[in-house]
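Budget justification aside, the reviewers requested a transparent look at the raw inputs and outputs of the sequence design task funded under Objective 1. We therefore reproduce one unedited record. The lines immediately below are the structure tokens for a 167-residue chain.
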């Protein structure tokens, strides 16, 4: 059922279409889709994982406008493929699971997470210009993560931090 919900959600996000200025031609806007291989790999973590936090070096940014994909609901730029995928198993002993994105350069980050139930979660400026998404009583399953930037740019050094503790 969760996969069906994810498939429907991905289809809705990817279905944004723009009409090219008066030519009558239609051009599809590429949008984030969980149904793609990741850019920076994946890992599987069991609840109560050690060491906590789990840290992955990657880059933030992209050329895909989240505003165009969400009718202006969210701002920032990502790539279409998830940057990282977490398979989370069990029940968090602290009742929380946090994904945080810390820039290792002078960039304003944004974070987009597709949860196991197919819901989308976005954050910009959780702590300063760094972003974080916190799940309370997180469900087990696949979390797809996009590490973006507020302004269109790419290859900005960053760290994805995953923790069950306060961030």
């Amino acid at each position: 059922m969760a996969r069906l919900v994810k498939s429907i959600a991905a289809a809705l996000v990817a279905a944004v279409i723009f009409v090219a200025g008066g030519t009558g031609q239609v051009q599809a806007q590429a949008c984030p889709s969980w149904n793609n291989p990741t850019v920076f790999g994946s890992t599987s973590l069991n609840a109560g994982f050690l060491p906590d936090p789990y840290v992955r070096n990657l880059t933030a940014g992209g050329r895909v406008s989240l505003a165009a994909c969400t009718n202006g609901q969210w701002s920032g730029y990502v790539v279409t493929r998830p940057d990282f995928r977490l398979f989370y198993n069990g029940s968090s002993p602290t009742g929380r699971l946090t994904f945080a994105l810390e820039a290792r350069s002078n960039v304003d980050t944004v974070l987009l997470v597709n949860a196991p139930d197919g819901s989308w979660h976005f954050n910009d400026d959780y702590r300063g210009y760094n972003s974080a998404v916190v799940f309370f009583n997180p469900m087990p399953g696949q979390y797809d993560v996009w590490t973006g930037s507020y302004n269109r740019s790419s290859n900005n050094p960053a760290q994805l931090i995953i923790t069950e503790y306060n961030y």
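The radius of gyration is 16 Å. The chain has one domain: 2-163. Computational costs for records of this kind are itemized in the attached budget.
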